[in-house]
Amino acid sequence: MRALWQRFTLIGRLSLLALLVLFLVALLAPMIAPHDPTETNLHLRLAQSPGYPLGCDQDGQCLFSRLVYGTRLTLLIGFLARGLALLVGVGIGLAAGFWGGWIDWLLMRVVDVFLAFPSLLLAIAISMVLGQGVATVILAIAVVGWAETARIVRGAALEIRGAEFVMAARALGASDLRIMLTHILPNCLPLITVIFAMGMATAILSEASLSFLGLGVDLSQPTWGSMVSLGRDYLIPHPRLSLYPGLCIGLVVILFNVLGDELRDLLDPGRKGQMT
Fold first, then answer.
1. How many CB atoms lie within 10 A of CB 273?
2. Chain-centroid distance, C-alpha 224
3. pLDDT (tens digit, 9 = 90+) per residue, 106-160?
4. What is the reported pTM?
5. DSSP state, residue 184
């Protein structure tokens, strides 16, 4: 672990440390936030008041507390959505790449169907059918994200399945499932790690987009996307209502993209400096 840390560039280390700080903020939100994020005080509506570091929003709720709790819910949705997308995408990609033939053809045609739709429009359609809610947002983001993962993992599995150690395992009588789980999947893990890191940025942007359109989580729940949506009617007199959560979204997206680039260069030095 120490050797890996030393191979990170300065910007990579700063990005990783910043993300760790955000995770701590999400974990310790009840200890950091000075107020209940859903506590309403109409007497403090849009006011700057002592005890409220960033002032209050249009409902008299503590803006800082909502940002802190929004960190928790935003990152949670991103992790669960990307985790579900990886679970489906990696499984389908491994099966298609390892078995090939008609299985590969059939699975890749399904992938092509999902990739043919603009991801945001597909997520909007799913959210409109299923209604608002955290589970709906997670499902919508996962549905639009698994296909790209499957295609990338399938390409890696196609390369690895012809390796000598795979042939040796097959000659020793190892089952297909065992070969996939103990030989091909571990060799795909560096690629999967990069996909997850970069996919987190996409997931957070997707959640923010759905919440901004009123199709994400309930607007009473503090996520950065819902805060931007609620503050858009006050952009001129009180831009901070949307500016602060918008800056948080932009910062986290940049951090995850930088981390993904660093991991790609470290885990696959032959592609250093190239675009994915």
1. 7
2. 14
3. 999 999 999 988 888 888 999 888 888 889 999 999 998 899 999 999 999 988 8
4. 0.85
5. I
